[in-house]
Design goal:
The chain is mainly beta. The chain has a single domain, classed as Regulatory factor, effector binding domain (Multidrug-efflux Transporter 1 Regulator Bmrr, Chain A). It contains two helices and nine strands. Strands 1, 2, 3, 4, 5, 6, 7, 8 and 9 form a nine-stranded antiparallel sheet that branches. The chain is globular.
Length: 161
């Protein structure tokens, strides 16, 4: 895993969300509801799928635990937020600095990669985690439960000074 800092503009999303915690985490249910209806969304930017996490407070490993609640999203990026399908909602990912890395495999090593970012990369990077949307981009190389799968993980950051 090689972390890369990128700066992005606002991204507009339409999708479905569900409040959850790590102890209740079951993305299959949300994606199972969303996927058959994603073609109803107009003005999509690409075929990429977005998994968003919106936390109630800035994400911190010292306070976040298996019972902390957050909104989990299944969404697509759109060029404009118009004509939102019934039972769907919109969300804006605020632009700014993000550290991103490619997650390889079926997610088994994801917690190790997060631990590496938070415990090794972040303390020496000159950045701190920001209180914005965290997300993953699942493009054409994403294959659910496949050891050859790839997805991009995006963590919001801000410069320390």
């Amino acid at each position: 895993m090689t972390p890369i800092v990128k700066i992005i503009s606002d991204k507009y999303m339409i999708g479905m969300k569900s409040m959850t915690s790590l102890s209740q985490y079951n993305p299959f249910q949300l994606w199972h509801r969303f996927m058959p209806r994603r073609k109803e969304i107009l003005h999509t930017v690409s075929a990429e799928l977005f998994s968003l996490q919106v936390y109630e407070a800035p994400l911190s490993f010292s306070t976040f635990d298996e019972h902390s609640f957050f909104d989990m999203w299944a969404a697509v990026e759109v060029s404009t937020i118009e004509q939102i399908p019934i039972e769907m909602v919109s969300h804006t990912i605020k632009g700014g600095h993000y550290v991103t890395f490619t997650q390889m495999g079926s997610g088994v090593s994801l917690s190790d990669n997060f631990k590496d970012i938070y415990e090794n990369w972040l303390p020496t990077s000159g950045y701190t985690v920001d209180d914005r949307t965290h997300f993953q981009v699942m493009g054409e190389k994403y294959k659910r439960n496949d050891p050859l799968s790839e997805e991009e993980v995006w963590i919001p950051i801000v410069p320390l000074s």
